[in-house]
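Quick question: what would this complex look like in 3D?
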Amino acid sequence: MILSRTSQYAVQAMIYMATQEPGQPILNKDVAARLNVPAPYLAKILQSLAKGNLLESFRGRLGGFCLRPEGLRTSLMDILVLTEGPTFTKNCLLGLKQCSKETACPLHFRWVPVKERIIELLNETTLDKLSEAVKSGKYRLADVPLRLFPELDAVA
Amino acid sequence: MILSRTSQYAVQAMIYMATQEPGQPILNKDVAARLNVPAPYLAKILQSLAKGNLLESFRGRLGGFCLRPEGLRTSLMDILVLTEGPTFTKNCLLGLKQCSKETACPLHFRWVPVKERIIELLNETTLDKLSEAVKSGKYRLADVPLRLFPELDAVA
DNA sequence: AAAAAATAGGATAAAAAGGTATAGAATGAA
DNA sequence: TTCATTCTATACCTTTTTATCCTATTTTTT
């Protein structure tokens, strides 16, 4: 309804990274297996997250990706601005190039307060909260239940 | 942020139809000119709105599209269910196939109340309200100001 | 120094969305 | 009837998004 597949994968991956041991690089292919998404595609996404300074990347043996030191404070907004573009929450619902308080589309004043709620949610929802939720075991991050990949439990 | 271009055009077109004389067919090309969108593309959209019973269509001379008799009560949700598909507001933010109260993604309980607000907005916002807003002259429906198309004032 | 393991990056392929073109069918008027 | 007008239907093209593949390049281990 709101997010591209790229963004969905990015958020899932970031939450997963946040559940892992800090500072310990995690392999792209392990994240991909855990989330059940195509590894080469996910690699591109992780690379762009690294370019955007949300992840660190290390090449070579013992390489991989991991959160930056303060990564747990990353908000959903931080991620989505990278994956959806900087105007993510700025556009008119009807697609008008100019739509502001002065030159408004007929939906503008109805939409703005709802949009504010969305923005608030994206800003206040951070990886530490989300990773705690996942670690509690009450929430699932991917479609396939964990138990179907017992070989990954060791990695986790 | 939320709507496909097809949906944006559909909503714009429906609002425009609602500002017109009831029962009087309006030409696709006039709507396209007024909204400044490609006419052949808009034609497809209007046809699908007609198939979905939101518009009536008439062929031949004096033909065109117009709202159905009770069309002013059409809500944004009515339109978007047609253009975005019936699961428009039903999907998980993270794209999980299964995401409900029982098997929730970590965003679920944060997202649901915001989504409820969006759904409420879409359901309660109807064409009569929106067309009144446009007819008041305080809101604009398309990017190009009306004055640039004086030849359309007669049509309107 | 060489081998192995990992990301980086560019080229490419497939699918979906956006947009165009064309032929056909219905309607009203000359 | 015939013609212009308008929607209908289908096929097609283009662009964007999603996904894959292959070849560097970097780093660690041997």
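Answer marked as accepted. The first strand of chain B starts at residue 55 and ends at 58.
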